Amino acid sequence: MSSELNLILLGPPGAGKGTQAERLTDDFNLPYISTGEILRAAARDQTELGTLAKSYMDRGELVPDAVITAVILEALNSADARDGFLLDGFPRTLPQADALALGLEASERRLTAVILIEVPDEEVERRLSGRRVSVKTGRVYHVDFDPPKHEGRCDVDGSRLIQRDDDRPETIAKRLAVYHAETEPLADYYEERGLLRRFDGTRAPTEVHDHIRATIATLRLEDEL
Ligand code: ADP
Ligand code: ADP
Do 107 and 191 lie in a common domain? Predict the structure, then answer.
C-alpha cells in the first residue's frame, strides 16, 4: 500500500554513509536515524546507555545486540519515523537484522532497499584517520578530501571540529575486523531477500550521491505503479 521509503545504509566505517545521508535526507525529506550519533550523544550526556556504550565504542567493539535493538525499534516507532526513515549503522549483525525484520513486520511495514556503499580497507583507513566532525552540527569533513573553509572550524557555524575518539589507528583496525566478521554477512542476507543495492563508494561524494538518488527515485516510482 504505502510508498513510504524505509532505507538502510550499509557499509564499512568511513564508507561515506553519514556524508550521503546528509544529502539523501534532504532529497527525500526523511528522518535520519544514526546509531553512532545516538550513542555518542548519550555518551556526552552520560546517560546509563551512553556510559555503557562508550566502553565498547572506544575499543572499536559493538554494543550488545539487545541494547542497541531496543533503542532503534523505539526510534522507528516514533511519530517522526512513521512515514519512512533512513537508518545508518543498524543493523550491524545478523541477530539485529532479524530483530529489525520482526519489528517492522509487527507494524506491517517493510524495507524499501538496503544501500551498500563499498570501499576497500586501505581507503577506509585514509578516510577515518583524516575525518573531523563538528560536535555541534554533526557535519563531517576530511582534512584532505573535504576540508572546511577555515581549518578546524565548521563551515555552517564556525564550531570547533574534533577527531572522534574511535578514529585512531588501533581502533580503526579493530572496527574494520569487526565489520568483516559481523556486518559484512548482512550483504548476502539482504541480497537473498532482493533488497540489496550496491554502490561504488570510491567515487567522489557527488557521484555516489547521484547514483544512489537515481536508484531510490526509480524504486519509489516502481512502488507507486
Ligand atoms: P561513515 O558514516 O560511513 O563512517 P563518513 O560519511 O563519516 O563515513 O565519511 C568518512 C570520511 O570520509 C569523512 O572524513 C568524509 O569527509 C570522507 N568521505 C566521505 N565520502 C567520501 C568520498 N566519496 N570520497 C572521499 N572522501 C569521502
Ligand atoms: P561509523 O560512522 O564509523 O560507521 P558509527 O558512528 O556508526 O561508526 O558507530 C560507532 C560505534 O558505535 C561502533 O563502533 C559501535 O561501537 C557502536 N555502534 C553503532 N551502531 C551499532 C550497532 N548497530 N550495534 C552495535 N554497536 C553499534
Answer: yes
